[in-house]
């Protein structure tokens, strides 16, 4: 079933010329449904830790009132759950901010080396926790691209963080840059590669969807919100850049960001 909504808009003030714009209304309905799904998912994700905190408060006021050991343990869980809600809210705010400014205007020259060094430095504690060694496979004169430094940091933080979380424990994560001279299309690319279990082919097209996880339990255990790659995709679109993902099961995954030539 296809329903069309017809809107007319004037082109030029005095020409009297009108253009009919046909919009597929089933597309509008699909977007409405996606929005409703998104709100339902977000509410569910927030409700779960909230229910847990609320349950522990009740236990602490009742049966566990005088149990000092239990109290400490419950408080720790409650702290972890509130931290989880905070991460989720931060990611939701990031997404909605990005949606309010879909087009990128003020691009400045951003040195990829600076961005990647800063990402690798800020993820050192996570890498140490996962016993992962992050290797820098780029020179000190790696390429520059046009964009927003903070947003690009967010992109590579998400990718390197995922490589540490879902890659091989005790393994390597390699961050490499290839300049435009190396590419027939003149693209500058940054690849984040891990050597973990990889991503089954059928999941690859879907991992950038909001709240899509291959294994929700692992994602939660890894402090994931399911929104990281959706944020990455938004930021890259704003930069007219794009993401490619390749993976061989058991051998790891590679996420490549492609920046087109200026
Ligand atoms: P999360 O917060 O769950 O990490 P993301 O949007 O960052 O959410 O990633 C979505 C899902 O994609 C993850 O839950 C995980 O299942 C999968 N994934 C992401 N990166 C990798 C990787 N390097 N190797 C294997 N799976 C990955």
TrEMBL record:
Q: Name one GO cellular component term.
A: plasma membrane
Q: Which residues of the full protein are shown?
A: 161 to 422 of 422
Compartments, as annotated in UniProt = Cell membrane
Q: Name one GO biological process term.
A: cellular response to phosphate starvation
Which positions are tagged coiled coil? Answer: none
Q: Which reaction does it catalyse?
A: ATP + protein L-histidine = ADP + protein N-phospho-L-histidine
The species this protein was found in: Pseudaminobacter salicylatoxidans
Q: What is its EC number?
A: 2.7.13.3
| Name this polypeptide is given | histidine kinase
Kindly report the protein's main subcellular placement as a broad class: membrane
**Has the keyword Transmembrane been applied to this entry?**
yes
Q: What positions does the domain Histidine kinase occupy?
A: 41-262
Q: Tell me the keywords, alphabetical order.
A: ATP-binding, Cell membrane, Kinase, Membrane, Nucleotide-binding, Phosphoprotein, Transferase, Transmembrane, Transmembrane helix, Two-component regulatory system
Identify a single GO molecular function assigned to this protein. Answer: ATP binding
């Amino acid at each position: 079933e296809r329903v069309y909504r017809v809107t007319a808009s004037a082109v030029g003030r005095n020409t009297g010329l009108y253009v009919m714009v046909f919009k597929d209304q089933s597309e509008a309905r699909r977007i409405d449904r996606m929005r409703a799904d998104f709100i339902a998912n977000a509410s569910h994700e927030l409700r779960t830790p909230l229910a847990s905190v609320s349950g522990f408060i009740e236990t602490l006021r009742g049966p566990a009132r005088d149990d000092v050991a239990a109290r400490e343990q419950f408080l720790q869980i409650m702290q972890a759950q509130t931290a989880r809600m905070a991460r989720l809210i931060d990611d939701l705010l990031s997404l909605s901010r990005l949606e309010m400014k879909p087009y990128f205007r003020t691009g400045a020259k951003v040195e990829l080396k600076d961005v990647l060094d800063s990402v690798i430095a800020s993820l050192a504690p996570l890498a140490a926790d996962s016993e992962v060694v992050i290797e820098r496979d780029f020179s000190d004169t790696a390429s520059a691209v046009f964009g927003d430094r903070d947003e690009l940091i967010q992109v590579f933080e998400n990718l390197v963080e995922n490589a540490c979380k879902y890659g091989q424990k005790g393994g390597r994560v390699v961050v490499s840059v290839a300049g435009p001279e190396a590419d027939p299309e003149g693209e500058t690319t940054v690849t984040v590669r891990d050597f973990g279990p990889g991503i089954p082919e059928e999941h690859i097209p879907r991992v950038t969807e909001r709240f899509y996880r291959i294994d929700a339990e692992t994602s939660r255990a890894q402090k994931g919100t399911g929104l990281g790659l959706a944020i990455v995709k938004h930021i890259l679109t704003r930069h007219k850049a794009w993401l490619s993902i390749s993976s061989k099961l058991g051998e790891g995954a590679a996420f490549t960001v492609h920046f087109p030539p200026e």
